[in-house]
Structures are given as structure tokens and as C-alpha cells.
Amino acid sequence: MVEINLNRRQFLKLTGAAAATLAVVELGFNEKEVHASTKEFKIAKSTVTPTICCYCGVGCGILVHTKDDTVVYTEGDPDNPINEGKLCSKGTTLRQLYTSEKRLTKPLYRAPGSDKWEEKSWDWMYDTIAKRVKETRDKTFVHKEDGMIVNKTETIASLGGAALDNEETYLLAKLMRGLGVTYIEHQARI
Amino acid sequence: MTNHWNDLQHTDVCMIIGANPAENHPISFRWLLKARERGGKIISVDPRFTRSSSQADIYSPLRSGTDIAFIGGMIHYAIENNLFHKEYVAKYTNASFIVKESFKFNDGLFSGFDEGTSSYDKTQWAFETDKEGNPLKDEKLENPRSVFQLMKKHYSRYDADTVSTVTGAPKEDYVKICELFCSTGQVGKAGTIMYAMGTTQHTVGTQNVRSYAMLQLLLGNIGLPGGGVNALRGESNVQGSTDFALLWGDLPGYLGAPKAIPEHATLKAFLEKETPKSGYWINKPKFYVSLLKAWYGPNATKNNEFAYQMLPKGNKNYSHISLFNAMYKGELEGAFLFGQNPVVGGPNAGKEKESLSNLKWMVAVDLWETETSSFWQKEAGSDPSKIATEVFLLPASASFEKEGSITNSSRWMQYRWKAIDSRGEAKADLEIIHVLATKIKALYKNENTPAAQPIKALHWEYGHGDHPDIDIVCKEINGYDYNTGKQVVGFGALMDDGSTCSGNWIYSGFYPEEGNNRSKARDSKNTDGGTNFLNWSYAWPANRRILYNRASADPSGKPWSSERAVISWDRAQKKWVGNDIPDFVPTKAPTDEGGINPFIMLGDGVGGMYAPTLNDGPFPEHYEPFESPIPNVFSSVEMNPTVKVWDGEFNKKGNNKDFPIVATTYRVSEHWQSGSMTRNQEWLSELVPHMYVEMSEELAKEKGIKNKDKIVVSSARGDVTAYAMVTKRFKPYKLKGGTIHHIGMPWHFGYKGYATGDTANRLTPHIGDANTMIPEYKAFLCNVRRAD
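ok -> C-alpha cells follow
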């Protein structure tokens, strides 16, 4: 886990304590009760991990709070100089990417002519996809054209990748070119 | 972006055209507001009065597809009123170059046009050169064959009255904008242009951007803080995915993919043909061989052209529209889709959906079930029993469920750490790609067919187990000495003899030594005396934050103005110093050869006011969109004559009698692109739950439509039903030939998720820019009626 600058958090803690003291003096609050309730905040004892927003190209920093195997809260990263803790509507709701009931959680397969998805194992999916790639490639691969080595597979397309990490786009470009794929396109075009 | 988000605060005038950052890049706008606190002004030019317009000092409408007329008129204004930065133009651009007599322009066509092939013979546009091949110049800019004089003549036709009747911009507002923006031509002032897909998604998209760059060069606004031409990237890593060449024509680092032509038959021939004789690209062989070494490892040797022959060579245009045309014709068997949803996001989306059923198999990797992966379902209007496509839908991890870096619009490469294990059985794309690669390689293990050889030769060693070691991937991208395994410090250390590897030379230097992956750098306090944040993340290339920053100093190396200083030549230390990494050889003195040439990636070292390399002409010229409401006022050539026209059922064209209304598409803050990421979340769906079409009060009245009525919008390609949103944000356009209505609509909707609605892209055409084939989403014709 990365070490992040906690100055702002410490600052909030301190001002919170000062406010509580004032409250006790002026309004007669029980300081112990206030202290106890802060412990119940969702983000108390959560693990904080910095990330970068997955939407537009601004690249705002976001802190992801996780606890008990779920994302409990997200907020702008005050240390990121681009957004200094601010976020837009999409950045603010980042947590729901994890919690949405619509998330796909299992590999799904649709057979030719079928009107439904079937759950399959990752291994079955990987093996079957690899077989399909090989079948198509072996049938349509062009080694030479007009006496020139061309080593291409013009029957498979690769689309997408603008939401992938750099390391992922690198491996994807390497694999697709390695397979001889020429129809390589993604969101930058459209 | 030539500059970066934080740098926007330094601008004196920002012109937003073809973009709506207050809506689509909201956090960027705080830096513009900061600029305004310092006295800066904001101009918004858009077919519709947007959220950005509401924050602007001046707004002007612009009919979709008329940017070149608008900017051409500004170029004319700057020249006529002597508001340009003369020394900058004379020294730092090719305005002083002399053009051959064979270059001509007449009634919308440049010389060298061949009607049969719809293309130009560009050799007719060449520069006059001396015996050594150096361009002849007139730095006084007076020679009638100089680029400057030819440009002046070309845009003399773009006077404010004509511009106003073509674009629909009221003349008074237009002149005010010209005056304000051109005020940044003064030394000490800086203006910036922010643009996005409203600029690029046209049949003249490339020339739209060119026109911005020309205006900025003319005003001396490139290379300065608060200046630049700034493309607002719409996806978190569309910069990175482009850098890593997920586009058919390139290899990582913009190296160019080989073609099946004799000049590319061998590595030697390829490098000879594709390596320029001057400029930084003379180093291309080092980057190319290092890439081959990264991809083919020990299988890339001096004796086998470093496995160059393993690379695919194709001669077609493989871009998005061509790809779907091939699919439509049944030429493709399989497709991988990594988070892409063309049934909503593709042009003429109804046809793209139809094309998918011609695939034998499709692999979709996504967080959600999208309209594309489920194109075969009844809800999609399909008959599943008639669709034989096998679909494999793989659940992918969300961005914070894995680790890796992304590159924002500022070219800053920022790391994301893993916050939590993936939801359900979802896996990181890195792992999915890795396992597929190893499985496919395993199937070919015992074969020696021509098809087996390239995939067997691909070097794929990323650790043990299913999940690859990302650190190994990072080191391979940065590059290392192949003999010692020690990482290289940057692209300057790469070699063309196979002794180094690097998966993407422009990123080389982000991981210069063990334990120092600079995309993880998080020091935002130590800024080295500026706002370039050199210790936060890593900006390619070489951590430079403001590109072309040599141009922030005059030819002698002194900043044009102390307020706009970036780097300057320090005579005592004999190097460039400042608050950014020099985008220049750090020890090259102004008096050295090439010492005053700031545009190091270009062969001539100067900015291209004139670009004899583009397909559609060396100067941007106004043409009407594929579907246009009025004849071209500037010439008898209606549409960009060099675009490829797809016809028949694949791309029906509408005329302005049946479809008299101009339409465009756009986005809202609460949804993102094709909507699959946001329409599958409850809060965002609740905020913007319905598809709508925005129109003026005048058009609504004409058509008997009231706010919130259900309406049908139709184009030659399809219909969509939506709610009417009647606003004052659209106004009728007064153009030569009469009044034209203009509407707009978001393109986020589809039938999946919580927030559903008809897909706007069923209306848009299958036609693209003459240079890039980016589809013309942003200007098409339609009609509107009440649904009942």
C-alpha cells in the first residue's frame, strides 16, 4: 500500500477535536459521546488507496476507502495537484462501479442461435477462445503476397482499450500484432 | 495537449471551440476560472449555448462543420490588423519558406487533383530548395511565393461578412472574438485553444485542428505557459492507448506499421524509406529495433532483421468504418472488444449492430453486459435463432481492482494502486490478455506452419502463474540493456544494434532504475518554482510538461517576456535552464546549428503554417459536411474532395429537402461515452434518466412541439424517439440562403442499464475525415416531428 500525505486528515482531526471542545463548553455536549459516535463512521479504520478517475482525460486523483471486503467510500485526493480534492458527478460516484448490482461477476457464453447466456468457467472460456482464434487464423492466415512476406490475419478485429492501463494496452498491441491482426482500432478513432 | 491542465491558469484568453469542458471535463474548468481571477478571458464557440458558454466572457454560435471558416477569418483578421507575432512567425514557422510555382489554388481545389482517385499529387505543393535540399526562405515574409503571402491570399476570402453568413456567427460577436483572441499576439500575452470531438469528428477534422495550430503559430502562442493547442481527451487512458498503438497504422511510440509494399519489404528498406533526414526522427531506427527486441526478445537477431518479417503487413485502410464495412460484407470471422460498445458509440450504429451478426465469434471483455455483447437479444430487435455468432463475455476488473498506470490528457502518466480484490470472478485485462497469449502460444507449440512462426516467435515471459508480473511489463516498456538487464535512463540510450529493448520509446525514462517507477511519483509540494509539478507523476517525453518550450524564448535564448518564461539559455552553464525540462537538446546553444529550431520533431525544425503532407491540401479550406443544409459559399466544391465515400445500404445520404435540420451530438456530465459505465449505476442514472433532443423555441413552435413531448428524429439512416427539450440554448441560424434550424442530442443511451433510451448514433453517417477517417458524427441532417 502506498504511503499518502495525511496532513489534511490530521488537520481535520485536530479541528474536529477543537470543535468538540467548544461544543462541550458552549452547549454542554458530552465529549465522550461525540467521540464514540465518530468511531462509527464508515471510514474509520478503512484502508485508503489512491487511484486516478477512470472517466475523462483530466486524470483527477481519488482516494478509495475499503473495509470488510467492500468499498465504503470514495473522495477526491487532496494531494493530487490536478483536482486538489475536487470531483465531478461521475468521479464522486466511483464507489458504485464496485457496488452496482449490474456488475458482471461470472464469464458468460452465448451459443450460436441461442437466446440466453450460460455461465462457464474461466478455463473453458480461455480454452475455447484460444481454439477459435487458432481455427480462424489457420484458415485465413496470409504468409506471402506478391512474393513479399506479409504474415497477416485480416479476419480478426481488435476493438477498444482506451480504458485499459498502459501496461495492458502494451500487451494487447503486442499480442494482436503478434497474431498478425491488422484490424486494430479503438475509441481514439471514434 | 501541448500544455497541461494546471497550466491553463496562466492564460490571458482561452478559446473553447469544439469542446465543452465545463460539462465534459469539469475539473479542468477550475483552472480556467483561476485564469479569470487573474484577469484572463474565456471565449466559447459552439452550435449550442453550453455550460462552458455560460461561464464565458463572449459566446458565439457556430453551425456544426464550419470551424475552418471561423478560424480562417481569424487568421485573416490577425494578418490584416497586423496583430501577429512577426519575429516568431518569421523564425519559428515555415511562413518564410518559398513554395514552388506548381502550387495553385482555384475554386476550392488545390493543384494536382485527380478526379479518378479523389486524391492530390502532393509533389506539386513542394517548397523551393537550394542544391542541398534546404528550403529557400524570405524572412521578411514579402516574397509573393512565400507561405506567408500565399496564406494571406488564401484567407483574404474569409472576411467577417462571408464568415458570418456561412457559420451563422453574428458579425458583431465574431469581430469581438477576433479582436480579443488576436490580442494574445502581443509579446507577453498568451492565448490557448481547447478543443475536443466537436473539432475532430468531421470530414475536415484534421484541417480543423490544423487551422487552430496555424492561428496559434501566427500569434506566437505555442511553447508558452497559458498557450498551446490543447486537445481534451475524453477517456482516462485514450492518450496512453493511442501512444501504445491500438490503432491500425501505428506501432507503439508512433513508429508506423509496415505495409505490403516493396519499400517495406525488408527492415533496411523500411527504415531507409521512413526515417527522415533531419529532425529528431533521424533516431527512428534505434526506436524501431528496440521495439522489435522488446517484442521478439532472443528471437530478434541481427541475422533475421530483428524479426521484422514477423510483423503483419497490410495495404488496406483498417480504420473503424472500414472495419465495420468489412464485417458488414462478411469478411471478418472474429472480434475482440475491450470495453468498446459500437452498437451505441459507433457511427450509423444500426448498421454496425447488423454487421456483428456476420461474425462467427466475438469476445467481449467488460464490466457490464453492453448493447454490443448482447446484440443478438430480442430487446435489441434481433431474432436470436437467426444469429449464429458465438459470444464470449468476460467480466473485467474495475480500475481500482487492479494496478497499473494511465496517461491523462496532459501526457501525465499516473499510477493507480489496487484498492480491493475484483468483484466476483472478474479479472484484470492484463491477466486476460496474458492468459490468452500463453494459451494460444501453447496451441502452436508443436507446429511449424507459416501461421505458427510469428506467434511462436513472440517473446512472452512475464513471470509464473496466471497473473503476469506488471513490474516486468513496466521494465520492458521503459527498456533495458539486453546484455546486462539494466534499465535504460531514457530514449537517448536506445540503440539500433539489438543491444537495447524498449516497448515504447516515448515512455522510455519513466522507469530509469530499480525502485523508481516515476509514474508513482507523488510529490506535489516541490514544484521547482513553477506550476509544472515535475515531481508529480511522469510526463512523456522525458518528463516535459510544456511541449515546444524552446519557443517560449527568443532566437537568442532569452524569454520573450519574463512573465512567460519557461526555459532560457544560461551562457555560464552552457545549458537551458528553467522550471520545465527543455523540449530541446539541453546543451544545444542558440548559436549552434539548429539552435533556433524549436519544433524538433519536424524535419525543418519549425512549425508548419503550410503542410504539404496532408491529403486534402496544405492550407485548411472550408467545405460543407457530407450532409449540408446550404451550398458551399466559398467554392463550387461542396464536400472535402478527398474523403472516401461509402455508399449503398451501408451509408445512405440524406438531402436538405427531406432533412432540412442540422443535427449534432454531445455529452452530459453525468454519463460517459456510450453510457455503459454510468447507466449501470443508480445515482447517475437517476440524475439523467432519459434520452432527449434539444431544440430552439422557434423550431418547436414551427413543428407544434412542446417541452417534454415525445418526438421522433429521423435521418436517412434511422429514427430515434426521445423527449423534446425546448430551450433558448439553440437559436435559428441566419445563413446565406435563409434560416436553418439546428438541434442536438446526447449519444449516451441504449437499452441496457438503469437509464435507457434510443441511441443517437443510429442517425449518424458512415463517413470519415480525409486523413484520419474519424467519423463525421458532429454534423448531419435530420427532421423532427411529434411522436403521436
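Chain B touches chain A through 165 residues (CB under 8 Å).
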